């Protein structure tokens, strides 16, 4: 995810790398990360930034993203997660790319 945000990797490249990870797990990760971003935006509590491997990313996104945009993406993630749960006929590669495109659009919308 760091490489994606630093534009060292495209959403398509990362989606290709992650294609073997279950879609539900990916949506759970992104939902958790969006919750951590919102929590940090509200509390500025570094202890609540989550696991060490994502702390800097979560903090960066919290500082650079508008709260409304984070809420919108979280809503989108939850809606797509529900579609995955209901076994909707979705193209997993395109869905993952769409998720990553949404995610990379977070910073800069403050």
From TrEMBL:
Keyword tags: Nucleotidyltransferase, Transferase
Native species: Pseudomonas jessenii
Database matches in InterPro entries: DNA_pol_III_delta_C (IPR015199)
Taxonomic superkingdom: Bacteria
GO biological process assignments: DNA replication
UniProt key word Lyase: no
Coiled-coil ranges per UniProt: none
Protein name, as recorded: DNA polymerase III subunit delta
GO MF term list: DNA binding; DNA-directed DNA polymerase activity
């Amino acid at each position: 995810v760091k490489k994606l945000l630093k534009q060292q990797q495209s959403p398509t490249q990362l989606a290709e790398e992650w294609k073997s990870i279950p879609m539900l797990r990916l949506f759970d990760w992104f939902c958790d990360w969006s919750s951590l971003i919102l929590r940090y935006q509200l509390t500025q509590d570094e202890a609540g930034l989550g696991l060490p491997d994502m702390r800097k990313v979560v903090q960066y996104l919290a500082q650079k993203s508008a709260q409304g945009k984070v809420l919108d993406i979280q809503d989108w993630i939850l809606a797509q997660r529900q579609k995955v749960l209901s076994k909707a006929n979705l193209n997993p590669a395109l869905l993952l790319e769409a998720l990553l495109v949404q995610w990379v659009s977070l910073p800069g919308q403050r």
